[in-house]
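Replying to the earlier thread about multi-chain prediction with a worked example.

Input:
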Amino acid sequence: MAVLVNKNSKILVQGFTGTEGTFHATQMIEYGTHVVGGVTPGKGGSTHLDRPVFNTVADCVRTTGANVSIIFVPPAFAADAIMESAEGGVDLIICITEGIPVQDMVKVKNFLQGKNTRLIGPNCPGVITADECKVGIMPGFVFVKGKIGIVSKSGTLTYEAADQVAKAGLGISTAIGIGGDPIIGTPTKEAVELLMNDPETDGIVMIGEIGGSMEAEAAQWIKEHGTKPVVGFIAGQTAPPGRRMGHAGAIVGGADDTAAAKMKIMEECGIYVVKSPADIGKKMAEVIKK
Amino acid sequence: MNLHEYQAKELLKRYNVPVQEGFACNTPGEAEEAYRQIKTTYGSNFAVVKAQIHAGGRGKGKIEGKEQRGVAVGKNAEAVKEIAQNILGGTLVTIQTGPSGKLVSKVLVAQDVYYEGPNAIKEFYLSILLDRAQGQNVIMYSTEGGMDIEEVAHNTPDKIFREHVHPSGPLQAFQARKIAFNFGLSGEAFKNMVKFVTNLYNAYVGLDCAMLEINPLFKTSDEKIIAVDCKMSLDDNAIMRHPDLGVLRDVTEEDPTEVEAGKFNLNFVKLDGNVGCMVNGAGLAMATMDMIKLSGGEPANFLDVGGTANAQTVEAGFRIILKDPKVKAILINIFGGIVRCDRVAQGVIDAYQTMGNISVPIIVRLQGTNATEAKKLIDESGLKVQSAILLSEAAELVNKAVS
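Result:
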């Protein structure tokens, strides 16, 4: 079971025949993910990685019954790919693409309003349900099966957290990379909520970054509705104000979106906040026993 | 990407947004000539000389070693020339530049808009930016123009208005009217403000701005609405579709090591500490900086080497970090997923050997795919490189290196 993706998910790949799409689709198939086909406009009717290629998402969904889309389309065309996917009828869109103009995402966010499609990302490593389904670019072996869920804005820091959780004798149910852009489809709060309601998840690791107010909103929600221990970390305690730290969304704009301010709110809301990224796994093992 | 005031004003004119007109000048001679043209065109004896740097607080800031302010009014050609002479080539220190200040290589010589007329002049504030939580653009405005807006927001939050713009269309006419009414305008000035705000929003969207701030937004004594100053920054992700805007980048405003890192596709931010770091992934890079601090050091930089940490990128990273004499140690932190740790380790060894004598201790933490093989490679290389697998081990090594 777990959340968002599982062994019954049928995956279509947008940007299937490109370099990134080919490489990561191959890795996903090796993991055991049920990749049913892909979309590359103009290459419909051909076959790639032993799977059919379609001109449109709608064609692919109609023929293969795909219900999840993963997007490896270059930034200039990614917003269009997301909207096509939503219109094409998939339930879940996972957009890996980094570098989408923010005004494009303003339009996408509006386009998705009222539709029954969830967007994860963009600028994210994807979603993995351990030993069942990997829809993303993460190294699968790090995510040892277990009962800890992860919500994170960052890619490699998610792998780091998963690795520490495994080394602490625990494992991962579902890890959700929500993305590091200013506008993303599924904010921290919604991803935490999914895991809080998942019977196969016993504890949650929540990893945030400087910039924006998503962690504070998630913390407030956890305070009111939380039923499982949450370990939190915010990257960027040493980041200077006004400078963008790699991710488009990682920039301190005022007093409220510094790492210190976020960590304070999270602590006040009952989250076990660790100051050092080296302590994530250890802390989870400690609190899950309580 | 930040723009200079003179560049931003030129862009606003494309969208029929009225601005305080002027000429960008590189020499005192050009400034003098600009004054003559302004005098002929606008019939005023006054012109304003404004230092062009990527920082605010210019009017209160001073040129290092002089009494000259960064923005000054000249009442004749000689005065304008003298002010330009004082500013150009000088270092302007403002509240936003920090004590080291910024070198000024251009001034904007602009028309005086504070002339007398039938009505009172008025200064407002208006900016357009992204409301991340709402996923919409928002226009923030206030009747308290020409002041530090953060102070206004703090002391009198009721004087700040916000207008969200629905993503499906432009700024609606009723919204533009609402803004003009809230500014307390009527008659000709009201009409001009409605036009101004509508066109300004079109400029914000059309140019893919990340932020657009007009302060002061000015009503002249004859009811014109004009952008007297303009702070504009463009969305870096959108520059690809505006080839004409990419060329406006002024690399002299950026840290030279950051510019050099960019040539190697390295995402680098210069900081002030004593421990350099090289990491794959932005989130892990920030987390590594935090860990350095907790281990008793101070991060000297942010550096995300991305998905390909090979000998070339590692060598480029070493060279860039070692330009800073304050760096006492370097921590390389790579979580190998798709990229294999043994390849990264070989890259570190190759880069180290190419560089010859690196005098500061290097700590390499490799975790993930083939981490054990990688540690063995490093340990057997005979180089003065310490290796770790766990993040906590790396933290201890950093602590030893700085204490």
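The mean pLDDT of chain A is 95.

Feel free to reuse this layout for your own posts.
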